Amino acid sequence: MSNEKIPYKIYLSEDELPKQWYNVRADMKKKPAPLLNPGTGMPVTAEELGHVFCDELVKQELDETTPYIDIPEEILGFYKMYRPSPLVRAYCLEKALDTPAKIYYKFEGNNTSGSHKLNSAIAQAYYAKKQGLKGVTTETGAGQWGTALSMACSYFGLDCKVYMVKVSYEQKPFRREVMRTYGASVTPSPSMTTEVGKKILAEFPDTNGSLGCAISEAVEAATSQEGYRYVLGSVLSQVLLHQTVIGLETKTAMDKYGIKPDIIIGCAGGGSNLGGLIAPFMGEKLKGEADYRIIAVEPASCPSLTRGVYAYDFCDTGKVCPLQKMYTLGSGFMPSANHAGGLRYHGMSAILSELYDQGLMEAKSVEQTAVFEAAQRFARVEGILPAPESSHAIKVALDEALKCKETGEEKTILFGLTGTGYFDMYAYAAYNDGKMSDYIPSDEELQKSFDTLPKINK
Amino acid sequence: MSNEKIPYKIYLSEDELPKQWYNVRADMKKKPAPLLNPGTGMPVTAEELGHVFCDELVKQELDETTPYIDIPEEILGFYKMYRPSPLVRAYCLEKALDTPAKIYYKFEGNNTSGSHKLNSAIAQAYYAKKQGLKGVTTETGAGQWGTALSMACSYFGLDCKVYMVKVSYEQKPFRREVMRTYGASVTPSPSMTTEVGKKILAEFPDTNGSLGCAISEAVEAATSQEGYRYVLGSVLSQVLLHQTVIGLETKTAMDKYGIKPDIIIGCAGGGSNLGGLIAPFMGEKLKGEADYRIIAVEPASCPSLTRGVYAYDFCDTGKVCPLQKMYTLGSGFMPSANHAGGLRYHGMSAILSELYDQGLMEAKSVEQTAVFEAAQRFARVEGILPAPESSHAIKVALDEALKCKETGEEKTILFGLTGTGYFDMYAYAAYNDGKMSDYIPSDEELQKSFDTLPKINK
C-alpha cells in the first residue's frame, strides 16, 4: 500500500486486537540464565517463587517454551477500555525536521496511569484475584507503575499497598493522590514500616530511596501478611510477556499498511516497554525472517546496558529476591537525585540482557538536558507532552531522523512513546528555567557499586 | 445494527471526520439577540469587533444564516493529530451500576490540553496566523483553555499571552509549566500589568480573580499592542461553532451503529462543550426531525442557567466587551474560592441561553462533593480520571442511569466527558481527605450581583 494513504493515526478494530501474548523466549536458541536462589545458588523452583508471586505468574515467569499464551477474557475486556493505543505517523514532526525519514510512534499514554504500565498491572491484578488473594504490594519509582496497579486493583476490588521511592514521593505529590483516588495506600520508601526499610534508614539516613529499596520493602510487606503477594512493573519476564501487546498491535497495524521499520527505538529502565515493543520484531529476527536495527536508550545517569556488567545480581537492595543474570550496575547503585523521572533501576530485564549480549540489539545512553530539549521540540509539533522516560527514545529518534536528512535516506523509524509527562512538571519547570543539569557517574562510583555484586560471579 | 456488536470505543476513520462545522443558528427560527455596543446600545458592527477579534472570527461570530462552514485544510491536519476522539460505550460502568440503561460518552481528554478546548484554540490560532498577526492574548480559568491555546500558538509560531485566574494560578502551578513548555507567557489575574487589573486590585485587593477580570485584562493587552488580537475559549458563538466537531463526530459514530440517544448530558460553564456536543442533535430537534432530552449541568456554586436572569450583560468585569443577552448572574459575580475547577463564568453562551429560554433544553445544578463522589465512582470502573468540570455531567448521567434501574427502562444516555483531572489533584486530595465542602450562593448574594447588570435592561 502506498505511504500516501497512511492516516495520522492507525487504530486497530476490536477484532484485530491481539488475543495472545508472545513469549519471545520460545524463539531464543540461547535462553536467559535461570533465576537463582540467593541462599543455595541453585535455580529457584516454582514453589519458592510461589511465596512471593501469584501461582499463574510464576508459571509465566518460568515458561521458556510456549510461544503464545492466551490473554484471559477478563483482561481482554479491560484492554478494550483503553486499547488499542494509536500507532501515530509523525507527519508534523517529519515536516518540522525536514527529514526524508518516515517516523512512527506507538503511543501508550492515553490512559489514566499515563503509560504502558497498565498492560501488565491489569494482568497481575487479575491473576491475584483469581487466586483468591486479598491484595498485592509493590514499589513505584516515577509513579506510573503504582498508578497503573491502583487502577487495576480498584477494578478487581483488591487491596493495593504501594512503596514509592522517596524522592519521587516528594517530587510527585499528585501521583500519590491519583493512587489514593483509586483506593491504594502509598508509603514513601525507605520507611519504618518494614524491617528492611529500618535497616536501610539506619545505614543511610539521608537516602533519596531507590527502586531496589522499595522492592525489598514491598516483598517483605507481601510475604509477612496472609493473602498478599508481591507484583512488579518491569524487569521480570512475565511483565515483558504482558507488554508484548504493544508490539503485537504495532506489528499488526504496520503489516496492514505494508510498513516495515528499519530502526526500532525504545527507552529502557527495567525493559518492560522496550521488551514489549520489540518482541514480535525480535521474533522475526531470531527466526531469520527479517532484520531490524533495535536501539535501547537509557539515561547516562543510570547506564546499565552501556556501562554495566553482565552478571548475576540481586534484584533488590535488601537482597531478599532471587538472583538474576542481567546487565547491572550493582544492587548498591543509587541514581543521583539530580536525575528526573524513571529509568532508575540498577539492572535490566534478563531477556533483554541476553538479547543484547547476543548482539541482537544496540544500546545508547543520553543526558537529561538533551532529553528534555527533544521532549519540548516534540511537544511543540506533535502536541503530546511526553514523559521524561519516553523522551529518551524521542531524543534518539530525532538524532536518527536528522541523520537521514544529511544522507537523504528515507528510513522508517519506529519508537515507543510510553507515556505522558503531566506529573513531571517539576522537571519541565527546571528545564524551562534553565536549571536542569546532567550527571554521569564516574568509573570509580560504578566500580564501587560493582563491588556489591554477589560472590557467585567470582 | 444490534447493540451486541457495539465496540467499547468507536473511532471514526479519517475519511469519516467532519470537514465542516455546523452553525446551529442557521436552523433557529428565533435567533440569539445581537451583541450590543456598550456605549451606544446599538448592535456591534464587524468593524467594531475587528479591533478585538480576528476578521474571519468576527465573520463567524456574526453569521446566523450559513448552516455549514468549511474547516480549513490546516485545521483538519491538526485535528488529525488528536482526533477523532473516541465515543465510548461504558460497559463497565453499566455493569457496576447494574442498570438497563446504555451509557455512552464522548471523551475529549486524550490530548495534552486535557480537554475539548483544543478544537477551538487551533481554529482561532489559525485565523490569527492567516491574518498575519504577531500573537494573541487570552484568559484562562482552570487552565485547560490556556494550555490548549499555548499548544495551538506553538504549532503556528504565534506569541501567546495568558491571563490566568489567580486562584487557579495558585492551585495549579503545573498548568503554568505546561503552558511555558509550549512557549506561552502566563500572568496571574488580576495583575498590575493592565489598567483594568490595577483598578480591580485597588477595589478588591484580596480578590481570588474571576474569568470576568481576566477577560478584561486580556482584551486590554490585545487592543493596546500592534499585531495582537484577543481570543476566548468559550461563551462566543464562534467557539460553539468550532466545538460542533464534537457533536458531528458523535452523531456520525452513533448513526453508523444505529444508536439514538434518549438523553444528552453536558457540563456547562460558558457552554462551549455542551453547545458543541448537542449541535447536530439540536439541529434535528429544531427541524422537527427527532426529539432528544438535553440537560445542561452546572455547579450549584455558579448557577447561571438555574438561578440567573436572561438579560443583556457585560461579558467581562471591566465592562470593555460588547453586551450579550444571556442567562447571567451579573458580571460582578465572583465564584466562591471553595469551588474547585472551571465552570466559573458568570454567564452562558447566547446560543444556549436562547435555546434554554425556548424550552429546548433543561438545566440542573449539582454540588461539588456529589460531583467528586461521581468522579471517583466513574474513575474506578471506567479507568479515566475525569476533570471536575466533566464530572458534573457524570453525576447527572449516573442519576439518570440509576433511575432506569428503578424503572427498568433501557434508555440510551450520552454524555460529554470533556477532559481529564490530572491537574486537579489538590481538589481530589481535598475530596480524598474528606475536606471538601459545598457552597450555594444565597438569594441576597445573587441579588447583589444582579444589581451589576447594565441599565439597558431597565
Structure overview:
The structure is a homodimer of 458-residue chains. Chain A is 41% helix and 16% strand. Chain A has 458 residues and is α/β, with parallel strands linked by helices. The first copy, chain A, folds into 2 domains: 20-70 and 116-234, Rossmann fold (3-Layer(aba) Sandwich), CATH 3.40.50; 83-114 and 238-457, Rossmann fold (3-Layer(aba) Sandwich). A 7-stranded mixed β-sheet of chain A has the order 1-4-5-15-10-11-14, sandwiched between helices. A 4-stranded parallel β-sheet of chain A has the order 8-7-6-9, sandwiched between helices. In chain A, α12 links the parallel β10 and β11. In chain A, α9 runs antiparallel to α10 (211-223). Chain A starts with 8 loop residues before the first strand and ends in an 8-residue tail after the last helix. The A-B interface holds A 7-9, 11, 13-14, 77-78, 80-82, 88, 91-92, 110-112, 114, 118, 151, 154-155, 173-174, 177-178, 180-183, 376, 379-385, 420, 422-423, 425, 428-429, 431-432 and B 7-9, 11, 13-14, 77, 80-82, 88, 91-92, 110-112, 114, 151, 154-155, 173-174, 177-178, 180-183, 376, 379-385, 420, 422-423, 425, 428-429, 431-432.
